[in-house]
UniProtKB/TrEMBL annotation, chain A:
It is found in: Chromosome, Centromere; Nucleus. It comes from the Eukaryota. Keywords: Centromere, Chromosome, Nucleus. It comes from Hemibagrus wyckioides. GO terms for cellular component: chromosome, centromeric region; nucleus. Pfam families: CENP-M (PF11111). This is Centromere protein M. Its main location: nucleus.
From TrEMBL, chain B:
One of its GO terms (cellular component) is nucleoplasm. Residues 218-238 are annotated as: Disordered. It is found in: Chromosome, Centromere; Nucleus. This is Centromere protein N. The lineage of its organism: Eukaryota, Metazoa, Chordata, Craniata, Vertebrata. Keywords: Centromere, Chromosome, Nucleus. It comes from the Eukaryota. InterPro entries: CENP-NAC/CAD_complex, Chl4/mis15/CENP-N.
Amino acid sequence: MALLAPYTKIPEPNTATILLVESEEKFQSRLADAIVQRENDAIVNVRLARRLPLPVENSETRPRVDLVVFIVNLLSEHSLQVVENSLSHLRSDFFLGKVCFMVTDARCGALTQERLLSVKKLAASHRCPLICAEHQTEDGVAMAASRLLTLLKVSAGLSPVATTALYLSTLTRCTVPSELDED
Amino acid sequence: MDEQARAILQRILRKLPSKKTPSTLRAWGCLSAEQLEDLDYTQPKWLLLENLISKCEESGLRLKDVTKLEMVYHIENPNQGKWHAFKLTEPEDEAVSVDFTQFKEMFVAHLEEVVQHVSIRMKKQEDGAVWIRMAWGDNLTRPNHLKPTYAVHYLQTPYVFILNLSAKHKPFLYQALVLSSRHTSINEAHLSGRSLTAMRDLLMKQYQQVFPNQERTLKERNAPPSHPNIEKEHAESAERTHQMACEAFGDGTVPKLETAVYKLETRYRGSSNDTLSDRDELFRGVVKFSSPNLLESLRHCVSTGMAEAPVTPLLSSITQKGRNYFVIAEKAPGATSQTPAR
């Protein structure tokens, strides 16, 4: 089983590649448009996928992936399952700052709270950040795009501030309050 | 104007949206142009009803004409109520040459022979559909026009669609249909739904079908990414799945079905539950899919990967066989395969 590895390819100068994984493909394309429009200095490539593993045919032409974003729609159980199944297709050194989770519809009712908790646990156990996004308005999409760009630039080594992806993810990683804290 | 006529008029007026009322009354053709001009459609419906009744009484219209209005209403709004589809089988040699007048004469003759008091009205539309309205009575009572049965038959095709038929009158109608269209028998087509046009399109294959090996010019293809830097990893496999989904369910606008029902009469075969498996009795269950537009939802499920592609024959039989009620029975005692039967 070929795992997606973070450092097996040589990076292009001034380029960053982000991989958006979403089983429903709706938020992905708008987010992709927002990302490429916001970035003016570096070249940003966006790859869209429905799940991992990625098709073997594209592995030659695919550039080095700097950040993998798993998008979970909290209203759909299927979307969470796809993400859980995809996690095993990434090599473990990806999780040192190059993976991020994004959820949509986190404000909609009681059912989403349970799923949000499962996604939080997933993110916490993999030491990755979790971003809540609002996909229904232009502003929400733009905000999500700019947050992802910040993370992406650090992971790709393009950040003006001297910092590493691992350091950033230690600061931003998701934590789940332990059972003892809940009263 | 008698009670039944009033009641029918009231019912029609209540169901008609205000915008359609003028055109329907005009299509009726029983009121003169001045009378139609006189009616004020912005009035509340009960007032409009009273005016309409007084105009009808002026013109001396009776129950017979009101039932004509009801028929016009149903012809213009065919997508309500629950229609059931039937198929005439084993045509005799003369079946292909039956024309409208012949059909009408024979139908009326046969039905009036067996049912003492029945009121029949027939109309042929330009698209070849023959609409039949029947109000049933029996030896002692006059026809009840408040519970009419509607049947639509497309001449030269074996299909009949029926609305509101009670079990008591079924054999009479079936016999009349079979004899007047020169077939030998009539069978249930196991297709029912709200929309007559959808059922007709499905059975007569009048929707956008897609065949394997066809040039890929599907309407709903995902648009290519907007920016050269954006690339889709799964573009090829997504297209293939979309193609398979469209082959199973059609492309573009599909006939609007609301439900699909699968009745299971099979044995439980899962390994997880000791009490249920390994029994000789059948595990009876019913699986029902409902949706505002079932075929479109199923197509979407398949093309986004929620349901597996290639499409299972259980689902694709809905379009291939034109039915939405299936009974899945055991093939043979102890056999492991399941086939959609009957």
